[in-house]
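Meet today's protein:

…
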Amino acid sequence: MLIGIDAQTANKKERTGVEWYAYYIIQFLKNQPLQNHQVVLYSSSLLLEDLHKLPEGWESKILRWPFKRGWLQGRLSMEMWQHPPNILFVPGQRLPHVVPHIIEKKQATVTMIHDISFKRYPDLFSPSDCRRLEQATNIALQKATRILVPSIFTKKELIDVYKVKEERLVVTPLAVDTSKFCILEQDQIRHILDQYRLGKKNYFLTIGRIEKKKNSLMLIQAFEQFKRDRGFGDPFKLIFAGSKGEGFNEIKQVVDLSPHKDDIQFLGWIPQDDLPGLINGAAAYLFPSWYEGFGLPNLEALACGTPLLTSDIAPHREVVQDAALFVSPHKPELWTKAMREIIENQALQQDLIQKGLKVVQGYSWQKTAEITARVFLDLF
């Protein structure tokens, strides 16, 4: 059996959520017992970093494409038409126009649908993005033989909104790389904090693309009230680590007009190797998102032993369990209160840290890869 994997999503220097999922699932699938089967990784250029280290039975196939866009729909579709594998696995939410089982019924396609936030909160997306995501999701649901989802919540969403048959859906939880995201030594933390000119435990941290759908404006509002309550001389800062997203200019304008603008910083995209140090050094990690399919940053914070304040939404309750302070994403005054509580109550900090370290033990990329490999093998 030939298993083809779209590695294009993973093959990027600056990865964010979906790209990291694609990277880790490929890396850990390499450890799975697929020895009797061939695996080919498709990409438009040479595989980066550890991706290019392939076990026996694996190969890389570079599918050149002269344009900046259209590789998935153009070049990968062409490959599927000319040389279809038995199974195509696409870790992202968009499938090529041509997938294997269109050519031959004994072939199959597997994809991952991470969330349908565009459906629940369309006002947080541009009209063009909504149309693009709706089309991609519909195509994936029509063409995929099996659909992976990161949580029970997302599974229920697809059944409720798109009426997908339950037997087509497989929950494959995300995980955290605990070889990197863990409690660090003090000198390791200090090295990273010095690099970004930050003081230890005097900042709140949020990581991810800076955009309206991540509820960044509400978080700024809550932090401003926190600063007013704490009074003159308060050292705490609010740190955003992530690239610019939809609505960033509006967010930046609000910060520029804030009396506390000097205490709100945008660090931009941060290399993964620096993230654990930033998380370890934070007084608390804040994740106020309106909607998530899983909420991977929550697990990264817990793995680093950093107290977590996260939005009170179903997937966060499912994943984090009781290891966080859950706060309504609609109420900035409650976020202000939670920020004060977390820095003033050391017993609460320690309780959340210990619970978080226990929760993280229940997730691993190895388990996720095992479930994914079983999906492949069970198809034939």
In short: The two ends are 9 Å apart (CA to CA). The mean pLDDT is 94.
